[in-house]
Amino acid sequence: MPTATLDPTTARNVLPRAPNTLEEAGLSLDLLTQLALKHLHFSGELKGSEMAARLGVNFAVVEPALEVLKVQRQVEIAGGAITGAASYRYRITDVGRTRVALFLQTNQYVGVAPVPYEQYRRYMQDFVRSAPRAATRERVREALSHLVVSQPVLDQLGPAINSGHSMFVYGPPGNGKTVIAQATRKLLSGDIAIPHAIEVEGAIIRLFDPVNHEPVDEVENDRDRLDLSLRHDHRWIRCKRPMVMVGGELTLAALDLSYNPSTGFYRAPIQAVANGGVLVIDDFGRQQCAPRDLLNRWIVPLESRVDFLTLQSGQKFEIPFGVLIVFATNIKPSELVDEAFLRRIRYKVYAEGPTVPEFMQIFENCCSERKLRFDRGLVQQLLSHYYEPRKIAPRGCHPRDLIDQSLSLADYRGEPRQLTSELLAAACAGYFVEEREGSIT
């Protein structure tokens, strides 16, 4: 079976080499015959080279399937040049339409030929082993340059990302935990190849997700100039390393294969979609499933780096668990899980509230983004006259929110868009919750 030379410095080496035979493709003749017949069913007529392109393989791989269909009179040659079978136009017959109707009753997958599970497993194992660890101090600082984050926090993030192990990012609300978690993707170097689908014992699992996978355009012509054969396996798509983000909507069902009885194939769970990248569990502890149940599901993968999925038939198979999971929460980790789970999540990053100088810096950055004049005295007055008497702890999100509310109030009043002590006081009154005496009647 062809394997990829995993050198992330060049685009062409991220993708596996194109197979030149059915055996190298790792597919059964029956599966490829079904796919070829389905494509002809929906297209009516295709050139051999067009069929190969739709299946993502060289014509030499699909030719045996077309020969079988031709012998069985399920397809016929409708014309073409004399340069070879790849130029022939293949047309489905009535016998073929009767046969394909039976195929579609059990499986409606029509697309690029799937990658055999074993090829995907070996690719991911090689990828996880050889993926670069490039989160240096300089790169971490650059990735989070849009935030005011202390150096101790940055120095915790870098080793966690380089290790590939999962981590908690926790602390009081409003201090940028979610943004910090999202920034981890910038620190993952190189691209990854994602299969359109994988095949496990005849079952097809869609893996490529256009919502969460970002393809990288190929600028290089991928065909050999002499025989127009593919150099790389087009059953895979070169993508940026993925980042999948889920929040309170997460359920345990999202961690298992999703089978659609009407189409007859599966969709991959979120951790498989995020394989090779980052999976951010935002607001951990507020999901529709209990934190303990969620981590019970992942306690083995977090330790062994291997996950187990189950088909409708009950058959289980293992899949590499090469995903960096970031749990972002404002709940103390010790209140969510016990020591056994905390041990498996090796890195804990505390996103502390900003100091007064950091608060000033955040305020100045927010003013600069909105093209407002920054008045240090105005911010100092806000802290001493409003924050301190009410014992309000500064949060990283406060400058942005208070400035935006002040500007909205100025627009409403028809006043100039500039910060004043009156506008900030009014914004604070509408932003912070104060306990008031008396009852509501």
Could you walk me through the main structural features you see in this protein, from its secondary elements to its overall organization?
The protein is of the alpha/beta class and 441 residues long. The protein has three domains: 28-111, Arc Repressor Mutant, subunit A (Orthogonal Bundle); 116-350, P-loop containing nucleotide triphosphate hydrolases (Rossmann fold, 3-Layer(aba) Sandwich), CATH 3.40.50; 356-431, no CATH class. The chain has a five-stranded mixed β-sheet. The chain is elongated and about 90 Å long. Helices cover 40% and strands 16% of the residues. The termini are far apart.
Overall structural class, as computed from helix and strand content, comes to: alpha/beta
Mean pLDDT: 87
Regarding quaternary structure, what we see is single chain
Q: What's the arrangement of strands in the largest beta sheet? A: 4-7-8-12-11
Straight-line distance between termini: 75 Å
Summed up, the domain count is 3
Largest sheet: 5 strands, mixed
The CATH architecture term of the largest domain is 3-Layer(aba) Sandwich
The coarse silhouette is elongated
Estimate the helix proportion, in percent.
40-55%
Number of helical elements: 17
Question: What is the C-alpha radius of gyration, as a whole number of Å?
Answer: 28 Å
Features:
3 domains; five-stranded parallel β-sheet; alpha/beta; 441 residues; disordered N terminus; 40% helix; 17 helices; five-stranded mixed β-sheet; Rossmann fold; Arc Repressor Mutant, subunit A
